[in-house]
Design brief:
By secondary structure, this protein is of the alpha+beta class. About 40% of the residues lie in helices and about 15% in strands.
């Protein structure tokens, strides 16, 4: 008589294998999530730097800053809740001189980039562009940006002092 041999994995082997895979997934997921968030922060910083450079180059070319939504070229802004950078984008992308290679839309978290152009008097002459960061709430708009020269909370941005 031929012995009855069954091939396959036992239940214990399957449970151990699934437990090991679950452990590895549990270790890898936070690491991947952190790297994705670092990538979003880097993209937001690069976008802000590019927008500020485009605004400064626009000023160098035309002797004024782009108008955006305000009629006063010495004080122009879009804060949280406004149309953001999109108010300036047409002047920086269209025309005979293109200051940005592509339209920059929303930040990586789905919010508009905020901008502030103030050129009336020293010591507060600035061009700044920032993202409200991962939490989507501005900690820079309330004045910390202009008083300290740095962005508040998790806001990410670029500042050009005249």
């Amino acid at each position: 008589m031929i012995p009855n041999k069954k091939s396959g994995f036992t239940l214990i082997e399957m449970v151990v294998t699934i437990a090991i895979l679950a452990l590895l997934a549990g270790i890898a997921t936070p690491l991947v999530t952190r790297q994705v968030e670092k990538g979003r922060i880097a993209r937001a910083q690069a976008d802000c730097d590019a927008i500020v450079k485009a605004i400064v180059m626009y000023h160098m070319e035309y002797g004024r800053y782009p108008g955006g939504s305000q009629s006063d070229p010495t004080y122009n802004y879009q804060g949280p809740g406004g149309s953001g950078f999109n108010a300036l984008a047409p002047e920086l992308i269209n025309g005979s001189v293109k200051f940005l290679n592509k339209k920059i839309g929303l930040d990586p978290w789905g919010n508009n980039y905020c901008y502030h152009i103030y050129t009336r008097s020293n010591p507060y002459q600035d061009v700044s562009v920032f993202s409200m960061g991962p939490n989507g709430s501005s900690q820079s708009w309330s004045g910390s940006l202009w008083n300290t020269g740095s962005f508040g909370g998790d806001d990410i941005g670029s500042l050009h002092d005249n």
